[in-house]
Automatic annotation (TrEMBL):
Domain SOCS box positions: 265-299
Cellular compartments annotated: Nucleus
InterPro entries: B30.2/SPRY, B30.2/SPRY_sf, ConA-like_dom_sf, FBXO45-Fsn/SPSB_families, SOCS_box, SPRY_dom, SPRY_SPSB3
A Gene Ontology term for the protein's cellular component: SCF ubiquitin ligase complex
Encoding gene (name): LOC114481568
Full protein name: SPRY domain-containing SOCS box protein 3
GO biological process terms held by the UniProt record: proteasome-mediated ubiquitin-dependent protein catabolic process; protein ubiquitination
UniProt domain B30.2/SPRY: residue ranges: 74-263
The organism of origin for this protein: Gouania willdenowi
């Protein structure tokens, strides 16, 4: 709610007092969307719009807790720990770039985790990856490590022409507002050139959003919780892209949990063909009964094309070697969508 405070100023040469009305917002832990206006020298209005409720029920695992404004949980031993479900990778081909980010973005966890608007939000913050994605196959996963809410939180790609500070004092969907970027919103909308289309279901805290940039065929594909959503763009221009994310939400955060690259080889093309021939198989590599060494190699290099079969336990199972909870992923109905922009 807004508190209205009337402040009176009186000049000795003016008999009628000049009234200045000041609106003071009550800040909450959720996003404060502030639009400062000064329509006249004697009036200042600051308006605060209410933050939307965080998205729940879309987590990759079972241990996500949307009701708290933070990605941590307390174990039986009393140790506060962050959910590490799905974070098996140890090597990353790129991380977030500390030199190419908005002023409202802050890095941690070896520059793999980005936090936005540490106190309150007055606009849109964004960041891009350190690596220029050119030839070959690029795949990365971004985990939502905080409540997901507000005007927009997006995952996507863009060229070096994208101005990460363009919406610094505005609340908007930065990725995809121009012809140099594509962005998937947490609302399920896909944006490019300012046009938005319904592309997927919503995602929230604990969701893992995967992105596959195929520079050989010029396609962009999105995944949610390691299940394929669909092709977002085809015939991409011959440009150099960067991974990007943006957020308008206060105290929001995202984390890179996978970032890999492979050449467009005969091996890759064969594996892609196998996936097309067996679209409903949850685990193509095990179905084909490949040698263990080859299966492991393909799983590491092409995990997004051939995800391991996933099970869903009734409750989280504690890990015997870690204080962190271990969870299995939640399967989602296989979808195949295609959205073309030329």
């Amino acid at each position: 709610m807004l508190q209205k405070v009337a402040v009176y100023f009186c000049n000795v040469t003016i008999s009628t007092p000049i009234r200045c009305t000041l609106f003071l917002p009550q800040m909450t832990d959720f996003e404060s969307e502030v639009d400062g206006r000064a329509d006249s020298p004697t009036a200042l209005e600051v308006m605060t719009l209410p933050g939307t409720a965080p998205v729940t029920g879309e987590s990759f695992c079972l241990c996500g807790r949307q009701e708290e404004l933070g990605p941590v949980q307390r174990s039986d031993s009393g140790v506060v720990s962050e959910c590490l479900c799905g974070e098996e990778d140890q090597d990353f081909s790129w991380v977030w770039d500390e030199h190419c980010k908005s002023s409202g973005a802050f890095l941690s966890c070896d520059n793999r985790k980005v936090s936005f608007h540490s106190d309150y939000s007055c606009g849109t913050a964004a960041i891009r990856g350190t690596k220029e994605l050119t030839e070959g196959q690029h795949y990365w996963e971004v985990k939502m490590t905080s409540p997901v809410y507000g005007t927009d939180m997006m995952v996507g790609v863009g060229t070096s022409e994208v101005n990460l500070e363009k919406f610094r004092y505005n609340f908007g969907s930065l990725l995809g507002h121009d012809e140099d970027s594509w962005g998937l919103s947490y609302t399920g909308l896909l944006q490019h050139k300012g046009d938005k289309v319904k592309f997927s279901s919503r995602f929230g805290q604990g969701s893992i959003i995967g992105v596959h940039l195929d520079m050989w065929h010029g396609t962009l594909t999105f995944y949610k919780n390691r299940q394929r959503i669909g092709v977002a763009a085809t015939r991409l221009p011959n440009k150099k892209f960067y991974p990007m994310v943006c957020s308008t939400a206060a105290k929001s955060s995202m984390k890179i949990i996978r970032a890999c690259h492979t050449r467009t080889s005969l091996q890759y093309l064969c594996c892609t063909r196998l996936r097309q021939m067996l679209p409903i198989c949850p685990d193509v590599l095990n179905t084909l009964q490949l040698p263990p060494g080859l299966r492991l190699l393909l799983q590491i290099q092409l995990g997004w094309e051939h995800p391991e079969e996933m099970s869903l336990p009734s409750i989280p199972v504690p890990s015997p070697v870690s204080d962190y909870d271990s969870c299995c992923s939640e399967p989602e109905d296989y979808q195949c969508k295609r959205c073309r922009w030329t």
